[in-house]
User: Which sequence fits this backbone?
């Protein structure tokens, strides 16, 4: 029970950061969690566009 699979690790990250608060503008946006999963950056859609961060 010591090895964590990727899904467990991903779930930990999502649960920990699932407050929808953008790291850049500190506003609460539904898109923050969506972008966190897609890009690994905890930012809202408008900040994502302004920083031109795209998923690889
Ligand atoms: Zn933002």
Assistant:
């Amino acid at each position: 029970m010591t090895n964590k699979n990727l899904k467990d690790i991903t779930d930990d990250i999502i649960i920990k950061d699932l407050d929808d608060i953008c790291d850049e503008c500190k506003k609460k946006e539904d898109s923050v969690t969506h972008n966190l999963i897609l890009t690994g950056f905890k930012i809202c859609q408008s900040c994502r566009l302004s920083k031109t961060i795209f998923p690889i």
Q: What stands out?
A: Helices lie at 6-16, 31-39, 45-51.
